[in-house]
Amino acid sequence: MDNTTRLLMMGAAGAANPTYVEDVFSTYLYTGNGSTQTITNGIDLAGKGGLVWIKGRSGATGHRFTDTARTATKSLASDSTAAEVTESTGLTSFSSTGFALGADADYSTNAATYASWTFRKAPKFFDVVTYTGNGSNRTIAHNLGSVPGCIIVKRTDTTADWQVYHNSIANTEYMVLNTTATKDTGATRWNSTTPTSTVFSLGTDTTVNANAGTYVAYVFAHDAGGFGDAGTDSVVKCGTFSGTGFVNVGWEPQWIMIKPYIQGPNWEIYDNMRGMSQPAGSSAGQVLRPNTSGAEAVSSGISFEATGFTQTTFNASYPCVYIAIRRGPMKTPTDATKVFDAQVATPSAGQLANTGFPVDFSMGKWRTTAGGYASVTVHDRLRGYNPFDTSTASDRWLKTASNFAENSSAVSPQPLFYASDRNNGLLYGGGASDTPTVGYFFRRAPGFFDVVAYTGTGSATTVSHNLGAVPELIIVKRRNTTADWDIYCASFANTEYVVLNTTAAKATGATRWNSATPTSSVFSVGTSTTTNASAGTYIAYLFATLNGVSKVGSYTGTGTTLQINCGFTAGSRFVMIKRTDSTGSWYVWDTARGIVSGNDSYLLLNSTAAEVTNTDYIDPLASGFEISSTAPAEINANGGSFIFLAVA
Question: Alpha carbon of 441 to those of 340, 377, 446: distances in Å?
Fold first, then answer.
């Protein structure tokens, strides 16, 4: 789907008030302060209802479940059989944009870190149902409007195990959320009856239906559609898999809960905010376990892919059930400030570069320093970082001026940014301390920007992506060994490429992109080792033109003043230019350092040199940017060919 089609669909669906996954689910990470605090995650719990699930990451605290049906301060713990308790300083209220917390240790110990998962009630996604048992076979109404894929039931008035129905096991069977137990047979849990789109069934077991007992049920949909611009996209799937390898769910997850059902390992939860291993099994990811109060642990078992997930945690004899939730945002952005930010600072180590949105990709540069470590440093959420080494910047980093492999060592001077587990920016690393720095921060969003990690096959193949539009600029870097940064651009033939870490003109190499033009769902790679070596690991950054937000384009130089219309209304905040018919560096300007009518500082992505401050090569233009008549041949040679990326 191109962006024109996407915007037309948005307009057509606008009257129907489309719903997106970011409206109904949030992983929000926070640090306790030993007092009250407000969590603003954009989820309307006060008006729509739902569940907040909180777990301490850095300490052994209980999993806390608080929902709008039972009201604030009423809590259950998935790692316990205990009845509902009242915690007056726990989760104290729900709002239209999140929830409020008190000082209870399970919610806000000073300096402790926490994960919160919010599930809003919505048809075809999630529902919360409370009921009183009657001791007889019966049905309970729900409001999913689709057949549930998973139901989690907890008795609230006394001690009882958490009972789990899942569509991947028989309706005479059940699992227990608070233990490592395997599935078991118990026809009196679900009355041997499969749920429908309006009700689920209960038998006479006291864990689900004791006479006068009180209960809460958390009901998850399965692959039911109902979301996105057209209202046909699914955002939750409940399924099963056996053995290791790739599991196709049709979209990229952001949250997953897994349990082997004929073996004894723990329930496990992974999400894309706390950090993942990529590829699975190659590096540390973070896991929390619903059946234990233990702190966050290291795991190398799961990685999220463009159309599913790959897992290596459980061996081939362990069939598993899972609940997966789709990655957002799904809504196409209209405001570039929600998906891109440029900042300058002279920071201290650990200082937050606050962007106001989760950062999926960053580039950072020491402005006044030259030499080996002064290249632009690249980080992204998919490749992750080491959260257990917070004293140093031990991200997995790449450098645009180098063909070197990915590095994760915390050598001095360290990379500029680290700690991707933030909802609103990144932290500066120790190597950035007291050094003037510029940073560029991007969020993945439909029609604008996407990131894909993949493993090469050595044979021509396609790689799935979630840009939701045809990519016009694709930047690929091999991670596990020395290799150039190869770049595809829509203004080239699909047999051509340029290299980010050099000044070289575009070249012909049919094995880069397999002589195939990208589509709105895949891009192609051939047999070149820079894009597709067997077992090679790669990262790809994909950009498209999005009306009012970004522009990928090309122009022909004139040697005189040249205005580049990007369709913006307030000018470009970021501009990258490369000459392609001859040698030329990769120039970058930004409004954080100044795109003005006078001198404008620029840096070079292919160089470790300090920024240049005494030139006036571009000027502001409301619709995009202007190239001045003083610009050199690398930017505006008469008759020369150039490509650019601009962000409003």
Answer: 6, 12, 16
